[in-house]
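Continuing from the previous page of notes. For each protein in this section, the sequence appears first, followed by its structure tokens. Read the first protein now.
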Amino acid sequence: MDEINIVYEDDNIIVCAKPAGMATESARVGSMDVVSAVKNHIARENRNNKGRQGKNLPPYVALINRIDQPVEGLVLLGKDKKSAADLSRQLTDKRITKRYLTVVCGKPSEEKGRLVNYLSRSKNGDALVEEDDKNGAKKAILNYECLKTVEEKTLIKVELETGRFHQIRAQFANIGCPIYGDVRYGCKPEDTMLVGFGEIALCSYQLILKHPVTGKKLDIVYKPESEVFNKYFKEEVESL
């Protein structure tokens, strides 16, 4: 799993689609991660473009957003320090829209909703839903819309207001609708047949941002490849 899909690229930014199972950065020895794969891609491009200045220098790559290793979808990176700083400010100021598609087990009680919780981290590294902000718990907010339910599986569109650790996974598990394949957060083992080992039915499918140099609005969409999306919700995914 050493290849990534480049969805958008110019001189200042790059957006790639991370396959489920690949780490965003700092993968274990012998495994590829997104940052390393992008550096390899840029280095190859530089070798092929002999007129490019600094082609022999190590590529500059700055990671802007992260997604969990079992999750597939869009990852944004800056290719120079000024662009990366601008994108990081956009992310901090909540000016980058991050939307996800997920398939959950069951169905939320409301077709549309807003989940507001406080999340902390357990000793074993899981996200825990708390009643308040004690013990360092941080507020986590997302908005969701149910698109279709088939055989006790529901396709949901999610827009994040915050970007907490394992936020989507923990918040949907908390309302009794764990993500398909996510045994770590309560999915039953039998609800893992249509995802690969170590993968879950969650995809970062849309990023909306302002280009750091031109100021142009970029609306970048990627359609999930996981089998569970294509078997039960192909028409809905294709219409996005």
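Done with the first. The second protein uses the same format. Note its length before scrolling.
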Amino acid sequence: MKKSYDIVCIGMAIMDSIIRGFEPEPVLSGFRAESGTLMAGGDAVNEAVAAAKLGLGTGILCSLGTDAAGDMIEAVLAATGVGTDLIQRPDEHPTPVTTIFVKEDGNRRSITNQAHSYNFHPEQYMDLFDARAVVLGSLFRAPFNDPDVIREVLTVAKLRGMLVFADTKLPNFRRLSLDDIENLLPMIDFITPNLDEAEHYTDKSRVQDMADVFLEKGVKNVIIKMGAEGCYFKGRGTAPAGNMGSDTEGAGSETLEFRVPAFTVDTVDATGAGDNFIAGFASEILRGSDIKKALQFASACGAICTTAVGAGTALTGRSQVEEFLAERNL
């Protein structure tokens, strides 16, 4: 029997070892840091945890090893209310582990390994669920750095009337360009690159030009995350409430374009801010919100995320985000 969800997040599940305040100068037999934290992470995990906290019926389609790290991640997901029935746990691959070095300003650098590029095939499991929407955790990263995988997942999603949200990452083990998946981009309703990613994939320097490249290749709506500068939207708008996931153009053929400012918070760790952003945005779109209000809500989710170490720590629920916005008269 198929499981029904509001949203299913598809992508990577990782154990994050977060090192804050790393001191690069060795001390006797090793190095020192302010803190070290072990957290469940990865794009699909971060997005699913945030979406579930925001009240969506949320599932996750990912791969975990049959190891202690996999057990820990699955337990975190279940405790947060994320449906774990779609998780695949093959014996042959360990759960990926990432070491993340967080600077004082919250920016970070990470170390990945070959476990991040194992050949997980989510397209083989699309028949296991129905959903109003799916999130591609990281387009251009495994498992969505294979055009055949992307094609099959998106084709099934659109045939079933699902709304498609796609976050992006810069490539690591396998390089993929927009041209490589140009014929697949029209199946994406919302794409959410950050500024560096948008510049990399479009070879443009102005956000308007970056967005135009995605739109010209068929993506319906483009959201470019610009950090402290907020985010930029350009696109058709979304389908009306009650018709989510269709290929209609919603408000019509007129193109919408605007910016939403960022929120100022005391940033501790930016890990997972983009994942919380897209989960918040999808949450509001599925509730029938207009684009601008959904982006304000998404920006609040991303800002709240940065106020604690780890992607799934600071955000607690929808009422917290509503209070955050109300305090800012929004």
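What the second structure shows: Residues 291-305 form the longest helix (15 residues). Residues 239-251 have pLDDT under 50 and may be disordered. We return to this in next week's lecture.
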